[in-house]
Amino acid sequence: MPKDKTGIERKNQLDVLNKLMNAKEIIILTGVRRCGKSTLIYQMINRLIEEGINPKSILYFNFDEILEFKDYRALDIVYNTFLEINNPKERKYVLFDEIQAIEKWEQWIKKSYDLHGREIKFILTGSNNTMLHDNLSKLLTGRIFTREIYPLSFREFLEFNEILPYGQLQKNEIKHHLARYMNFGGFPETVLEENETIINKRLEEYYNSILLRDIIQPNSIREAAKLMELAKYLMTNTTSTLSYNNIAKSTGLNITSIKEYISIMEHAYLLFQLNFFSYSLKESIMIQKPRKIHAIDTGLRNAVSFRFSKDEGKLAENLVFLELRRRLAEVYYWKNKGEIDFVIKNKDSSLTAINVSFTNRIDERELKSLNEFKSSFKNTKEIILVTEDIEKTEDSIKFVPLWKWLLNINSAN
């Protein structure tokens, strides 16, 4: 496999995926465009070959190309041609990239899976999480393992730049790299680029490609200009609590369109909505409750939003949100007199409250909010305040520097 295809190995991701390769279930990788799914596929192929799998038993095809057919006929042609050329005798590994471009692909996959079972190992990728819902969930229940892929974590960012081990770095060195990660994000192709003009141009192209190819075109959006205006408004206002009514006043769109467009953007992994925490599911998703918006990547957000300051507080909070997603946390926000940036429902039914205050001058309101939450919910297990440099435990509140929390070094999470 050519080096320009396999890139730098994302070892943690590969190790997880490698453990699933011997199972019969279909592996589905989803995530935002350009986050590295295709490169992971190439790396998986490389590992298969290194482990002795015959290359003629491996089929890779990217459906994000101009094809004569965009339905199951394309799958038939690709797979049958592979069989005719290679005539594989062993277990076949079929890796289909951006398969959501093919209409009714899930029906073809189900039929092939049910007919051949362990004879074929399917690994599929897509840039839209709608592929995990609707017909797919009905047709392939019990037949799939899914994994969401994100732009690089801060740990991966350091690994890509060969800045290891962390223990040998001075704090000011790590903070220097954190500032760059915060400003330019974790898309793999931008992480190794030093020219800031090229980085920003590349991120703008990513953003426009996501909007056009994953949002506007596949959903036949008629109000494309208004959707693009809404997207920029949301990216600018990441981490803010936004009600549909306020968004409607700011954009001129009606609430029905706003809900639909935000849902589509969320399916394309451009952004995420964070719901209000409540033990009542109905209350947590009520339209009257404002939502918090978080971007898929701080660099992407910075490249396309209207910025009037460094916005370090917003960026730090967005980084914590993304890391919680990577850690598969069930996460919400909470607000009463004070506000909690993140409430995590733990598997043992306990709660963790996290506020992010990227400064060394902690506002008393942050502490009051955390204590208010603890008083309101007796099953609160941990209270964490993510800071710039402060590290201590005081009145049961754990103060953790952002870089330590992201790297999970002696942190409370």
Structure explained in plain terms:
- The protein has 413 residues and is an alpha/beta fold.
- It has helices at 3-6, 11-18, 37-50, 72-86, 105-116, 135-139, 154-160, 171-184, 188-191, 196-216, 224-236, 244-251, 255-267, 281-284, 298-304, 312-326, 364-376, 402-407, and strands at 26-30, 58-62, 92-97, 120-126, 144-148, 241-242, 271-274, 291-295, 330-335, 339-345, 351-356, 380-387, 392-394, 397-401.
- It is built from 18 helices and 14 strands.
- The mean pLDDT is 91.
Annotate the secondary structure layout:
Layout: H1 3-6, H2 11-18, E1 26-30, H3 37-50, E2 58-62, H4 72-86, E3 92-97, H5 105-116, E4 120-126, H6 135-139, E5 144-148, H7 154-160, H8 171-184, H9 188-191, H10 196-216, H11 224-236, E6 241-242, H12 244-251, H13 255-267, E7 271-274, H14 281-284, E8 291-295, H15 298-304, H16 312-326, E9 330-335, E10 339-345, E11 351-356, H17 364-376, E12 380-387, E13 392-394, E14 397-401, H18 402-407
Parallel strand pairs: 1-4, 1-5, 2-3, 3-4, 11-12, 12-14
Antiparallel strand pairs: 6-8, 7-8, 9-10, 10-11, 13-14
Quick summary of this structure?
The chain is α/β, with parallel strands linked by helices. Helices cover 44% and strands 18% of the residues. The longest helix is centred in the middle third of the chain and has 21 residues, at 196-216.
Morphology call: globular
How much of the sequence is in beta strands?
15-25%
Share of residues in helices: 40-55%
Major β-sheet annotation: 6 strands, mixed
Distance between the termini: 38 Å
- Helix/strand/pairing class, anyone? alpha/beta
Tally the helices: what do you get? 18
Radius of gyration: 22 Å
